[in-house]
Amino acid sequence: MRPQITEQITGFDPNAGLNIDGFMASQRNAQSAHRRRVREAARLIVDVSEGRTDRYFLKQAFRPTEQSALVKLQETYPGLINLREAPIGGMSITDFSILTLDVLDRILYGYWDATPILSKPMVRMHPLTDFRNVSRYLMDGAATPPEAVPPGAQPKEKVLGPQTLIQYAPQKYEAFTRVVWEAMVNDDLGIFTDLGQRLVIGANRGIELFLTGLYVDANGPNATLYTTANKNQIITANGAASNNPILDAQGLQDAFTVLARQVDADGYPIILTGKMYLWYGPKYAAVVQNLMHLLSVQLSVQGGVANAQGFPSQFIQVNNWMVQNLVPIMNPFIRLVCTTATTQDTMWGITLDPGAQNRPAMEFGFLRGFEVPQLFQKVPNTMRAGGGVAPELGDFYTMAQEMKVLSVYGGKQIAGQTTVASTGRGV
Q: How many domains does the chain have?
């Protein structure tokens, strides 16, 4: 009984096959008719604009009033007007105005601009030859001052300290996309022309996330790079006026103080030179611009004097020397790597130019020939019978065209003495 009820209510016959082929054919016919009407609408607009057709016919296409004009349009631009839509004695408005939207008002906005790799200036770039581990050695010792030696005595031997071994291996990073032949045929807006650019943007974003991860982790400044042993945290124990200051004029001065107090394994000062890269997140964008464009600074600390109540009793006014050797890098990827809400907006740091240091803070290695992401396309393997390769048909089985991007890189922290950082939380 249940099949009968279903048949009676819905008209569904369980013994009859579904006419899928007929449905698909009708869909194709409808799409073909629409494309033909759009094409003829475009031809009419061009003919009117170039004077080959009177503007009267364009007006009739929008709002028909004369049957003779519609007949002329039907003859000159077949498929544009369906006369059954315009009965005699009651001319109806056709969908020509809708068709013109497809012709005149169709815009494809391009994708976002290419993403630069912001952190590159802060790492030592090094080409790699293969996928095996690379080794980096740090050797300390034998650099203490010589001592006075009595006549005839043997000088004290200087010995090298224990070496530190740092290793990493590059990895390959890939992504690919596929466009079927039907989509390529229908693409009159050039939707797929920037696929390569999109893949490269994604690859650059991956590199930036990797580099940012060398000096940032989920909780703030990377705990492997910014350690108590490296004395590169901006805290009072390392000479700062306060613990983890926010990014301001006082915070910058604290960072310079911590950098100036760096010593080697024997406890002797390290003379650090070169440009300094100030890295920070979006929250400090306006703060850094204000700091970079200061005309002068009035200080009641670091040379000025404050009274017991905290009010300045002596001011000193200085030029904005703090930014003379400073290069700002606003890195929005910090918020993606650091997932701790209380730190991701407040953290900041300074990293010295790796090219000016014997021991850079970080190293980034790339496979030779892959300094930048490389694009590859699958070779088409469809050939016409008796003819040559048909590149537009792509793969023989799927009729799709495929493209991929490939990057090969790795990296590691090297020496923490050339960088300092603050969580910006004041604790």
A: 2
